[in-house]
Specification:
CATH topology: L-amino peptidase D-ALA esterase/amidase
Shape: globular
Strand order of the largest sheet: 4-3-12-11-10-9
Strand content: 15-25%
Structural class: alpha+beta
Radius of gyration: 20 Å
Helix content: 25-40%
Number of strands: 14
Length: 382
């Protein structure tokens, strides 16, 4: 118990000393991206969406299972904020299934997401899932039909290259802290929350986010994306169309494609579940722009939700909903592709070099080298 409390205290300290978006982002380095971002260029540009992290970092040196080193955490995304019991329409899709996202059988069947989306490491899915149920009970609200019933959505990627993943360091209180500390506004990126120990294209990876705002002609809707990226082959990495991975080949983590990515898409556009599933599928095209080919060992799993139609998914009476016609979805699809592409690069730009178990070191994407490569290919914009 003392050890768990110490790690939890460390997580709280990290949250204080690492203010959201205090680091440069991809656009700050001169990386060109298509589309118009929202004010925060984050998933929280969708009104009501809140994000919280618990970051666990402690210990160094040789792996001692149960003792560390620890490089892990939890991230929470709340579609309508902590104080809402109103669900949202949702859809999900998996490009490659070597991973887990609990609760998606019911999302597929019902088209509803009733609660947060949580992201953590592979071996902590169970404890986070149970913590979400406890959190919902503590909130004092039954589900829409009056029952204390829940199938939480909890997703994972594997951080065992840097983290003592079999030490089970994520505890219920860490999931609860991520939920209770969730806020709108700027979102911390890089080595935070569930992304703490993750690796992307054999550089340090983690949490990243981005958004796109449609023009007035297409409704002015916003699409936001948050990724936990832990996938990719260095040689395939492309940034703004430039083969950055081939230009910066040194110090790869694995020498091959390994890992997974979880992507959460939010929008305020009035979409129904079948349309949201179509949106989730377009995430694959954004990842393809960054060089992903969805390797055999990868869990590429995506969920999309809409904050439109508040109150429309209760259990009684006739519900009147709004929806875009399918013929008007193209701008939403394009925004999803663009925001996904940028969110991954934002995660890599924000991440910092990390040393984990057995002194394994994963380097961050070097900002100066990135700028040099973009300039070489005439893609640097500032």
């Amino acid at each position: 118990m003392l050890k768990s409390a110490t790690l939890f205290a460390a997580a709280l300290i990290l949250s204080v000393i690492a203010p959201a978006q205090s680091k440069p982002r991809a656009r700050d380095l001169g990386v060109p991206f298509d589309g118009t971002p929202g004010p925060l260029n984050a998933i929280t540009d969708i009104k009501g969406v809140e994000v919280g992290h618990t970051t666990l970092i402690s210990g160094e040196g040789p792996l001692k299972v149960g003792s560390g080193p620890v490089r892990t955490g939890v991230t929470a995304i709340l579609p309508r904020g902590r104080n809402s019991t109103d669900g949202v329409f949702a859809g999900w899709f998996t490009e490659n299934g070597n991973g887990e996202m609990t609760g998606t059988t019911w999302v597929e069947e019902s088209g509803l997401l009733d609660g947060p989306v949580m992201i953590t490491n592979t071996h902590s899915v169970g404890v986070v899932r149970d913590a979400v149920i406890a959190w919902k009970v503590k909130q004092g609200h039954p589900d829409m039909e009056g029952y204390w019933w829940s199938l939480p959505v909890v997703a994972e990627t594997w951080d065992g290259y840097l983290n003592d993943i079999n030490g089970f360091h994520v505890k219920p209180e860490h999931a609860l802290h991520a939920l209770d500390s969730a806020l709108g506004g700027p979102v911390e990126e890089g080595n935070v929350g569930g992304g703490t120990g993750m690796i992307c294209n054999e550089f340090k990876g983690g949490i990243g986010t981005s958004s796109r705002v449609l023009d007035a002609k297409h409704g002015g809707y916003t699409v936001g994306v948050l990724v936990q990226c832990n996938y990719g082959d260095r040689s395939q990495l492309r940034i703004a169309g430039v083969p950055v991975g081939k230009e910066i080949p040194e110090n790869p983590a694995y020498g091959r494609d390994q890992g997974s990515i979880i992507v959460v898409v939010a929008t305020d556009a009035p979409l129904i579940p079948t349309q949201l599933k179509r949106v989730a599928k377009r995430v694959t095209l954004g990842l393809g722009r960054d060089g992903s080919y969805s390797g055999d060992g990868s869990g590429d799993i995506f969920i999309a939700f809409s904050t439109a139609n508040p109150g429309a998914i209760g259990s009684k009476g006739i519900h009147h909903i709004r929806m875009l016609p399918n013929g008007d979805l193209d701008p939403i699809f394009l925004a999803t592709v663009q925001a996904t592409e940028e969110a991954v690069i934002n995660a890599m730009v924000a991440a910092e070099t990390m040393t984990g178990i057995n002194n394994r070191k994963v380097i961050a994407l070097p900002h100066d080298r990135l700028r040099e490569v973009l300039k070489k290919y005439n893609r640097l914009v500032k």
